[in-house]
Amino acid sequence: MIIFALRKSKIEQSYMAKELKELTSRSENYSQWYNDLVIKADLAESSAVRGCMVIKPYGYAIWEKIQAELDRMFKETGHVNAYFPLFIPKSFLSKEAEHVDGFAKECAVVTHHRLMASPDGKGLIVDPEAKLEEELIVRPTSETIIWNTYKGWIQSYRDLPILVNQWANVVRWEMRTRLFLRTTEFLWQEGHTAHATENEAFEETKKMLEVYADFAERFMAVPVIKGIKSANERFAGALETFCIEALMQDGKALQAGTSHFLGQNFAKAFDVTFMDKNNKLDYVWASSWGVSTRLIGALIMTHSDDNGLVLPPTLAPFQVVIVPIYKNEEQLAAISEKVAEITAKLKALNISVKFDNNDNKKPGWKFAEYELKGVPVRLAIGARDLENNTVEVARRDNLSKETVSLDGIDLYISNLLKEIQSNIFQKAKDYRTSVTREVNSYDDFKVEIEKGGFLMCHWDGTPETEEKIKEETKATIRCIPLEGDKTSGFCMVTGKPSTQRVVFARSY
User: Would you say residue 217 lies in a domain?
Assistant: First the structure.
């Protein structure tokens, strides 16, 4: 009976390891591959509330890493955190005309404040006597509630600048949802700053764009193009929207962050004025900027492969996992003692480590699981390794393995993690380069857009031409690049003069 039980355990372990790895391939169905990976890697799942998601512990750990690094970067640039209400009076939203037009169709509205027992005794109904005097909007973004608040905070130039960030959730009612990429409720940060001069607010807007670009490339290992949105794609209520655009492995673009120059629009809407140094009354100048849990979707689609997640070491919940291989408790005890030494050395270098000595899963299962979850480095150590003073090191980025000495293993792993971070960034950058091309005629554009990637094209600057391209090809202007070739030319559609090429792509 004992022998049978052991055989059954091995069969089950083999089957479970196989199940972990059964992902739809990217070439077969990229969309299904993404959905499979989010679920099987234990990042998130759909909830009982339509369009909303449950972010599971492993997925939330990635968000915490993102949050921690960004929060540090915000504070290094002088920003502080605050929190504002989830509910916004409907009248606030209607004060800035472009803003309300931009969000009206996405708003969730609270109309009553109480439930009551149904007269037929079957469940609960909304109490008709509990109707709110004014409906409340569940926060789609916070410009209105924050600028109404700033009115009480600002009287003089001495009260400026205000550099506030908020970590929060928002609700935008979506018809078609996708985990992390587009959900009815999502997590984000939103910065809202107030300034005494136009130049100061504009410089703040550009500064935060640089912060986002730096974070995306250094921590996410995602190469991005920095640019300005066209008027059609601009944030509702902004005078200018700056953005970073990333390219996913299926050739579609993903907007990874935005920073908005709001001018005096919201200050005027909420009558936020200040006395300047010359004792002249003026309206305050503003910026706002934000990124969301969509960044996790960007991580997945930029780096991962048919074996599962590939995570950059800087954002992985743990960077190294150590799996013991043993036959008895005596061997496990000896291995555990050595692992404690290794772990202490790695932690001294700020490397996060997990020692998986769980005895109800075989090493084969663990290898498959951690490969699926994208752990950057896996160490396997057994009794023979102890004798030889060696350890097997497996890299997730290229799936290579090698046996190395335990002497100096801490520095070896530290350098390896840096190499992996650099490698996956370069791989993503090389891919982007390979699918970025210049297109000069509209006929060629219609052919090339089907292949995906970034198309660099001349555009006459009119919203009419932009809309025509979008309607006929489903491609949008992702941004007007801030860097790169500024050579003038002629619009591929109308032949009218163009000052520079812009970035077109289909997008998420």
Answer: yes
Helix (H, G, I), strand (E, B) or coil at 453: coil
DSSP sequence for 220-240: S----EEEE--GGGS-TT-SE
* 23 secondary structure, DSSP code: -
Q: Is the same domain home to 88 and 131?
A: yes
Count of residues in the chain: 508
pLDDT in tens, 100-151: 788 889 999 999 999 999 999 899 999 999 999 999 999 999 999 999 999 9
Distance CA 342, CA 95 (A): 60
Four-point Cα dihedral 55, 58, 64, 66, nearest 10: -100
User: Does one domain contain both 66 and 215?
Assistant: yes
Distance separating alpha carbons of residues 212 and 259, to the nearest angstrom: 9
Residues 358 and 406 in one domain: yes
Query: Which tokens in the block code for residue 167?
Result: 């970590």
Asked if residue 89 is part of any domain, the answer here is: yes
Question: How distant, in Å, are the alpha carbons of 77, 156, 283, 339, 454 from that of 263?
Answer: 21, 18, 9, 57, 31
State pTM to two decimals.
0.94
